[in-house]
Amino acid sequence: MPEISRDEVAHLADLARIDLSEAELEQMAPQLSVILESVASISDVAAADIPPTSHPLPLTNVFREDVVVPGLTAEQALAGAPESEQQRFSVPRILDEEA
């Protein structure tokens, strides 16, 4: 069973720039040992004949091919706009001059 000592917790806290009190260091050591034990137990479950995966079912890419197609012209894009100015959408000003 992997165990972590109070000194190792203090070292980790120092590396992480976390200021822990003596009571917190004493409390953290057994808690981190439980976490390490849980992580180590995963290796007991993993079998050599099962490859590591990120998903239980195989996934395939569902994206379409990236094909370049002609886009809209400025006139086509602005055709449905209520107002346009210099090939741009014209919208009402919402900020004061002071902003």
What is the element layout, followed by pairings?
Layout: H1 6-15, H2 22-45, H3 74-78, E1 84-85, E2 88-89
Antiparallel strand pairs: 1-2
Written account of the structure:
It is a single chain. The protein is mainly alpha-helical. It has helices spanning 6-15, 22-45, 74-78; strands at residues 84-85, 88-89. The chain has a two-stranded antiparallel sheet. Helix 1 (6-15) crosses helix 2 (22-45). The longest helix has 24 residues, at 22-45. The chain is elongated. The relative contact order is 0.09.
Sketch the major β-sheet.
2 strands, antiparallel
The helix-strand sequence is HHHEE
Estimate the mean pLDDT confidence: 86
- What is the general shape? elongated
Into which percent range does the helicity of residues fall? 25-40%
- Per DSSP E runs of 2 or more residues, the count of β-strands stands at 2
- SS-based class: mainly alpha
The strand order across the widest sheet is 1-2
Query: How much strand?
Result: under 5%
Q: N- to C-terminal separation?
A: 63 Å
The helix count comes to: 3
CA gyration radius, whole angstroms = 30 Å
Q: Which residues form runs of ≥5 with pLDDT under 50?
A: none
Features:
two-stranded antiparallel sheet, 99 residues, mainly alpha, 3 helices, 2 strands
Task: Please provide a brief summary of the model.
Helices cover 39% and strands 4% of the residues. It has 99 residues and is mostly helical.
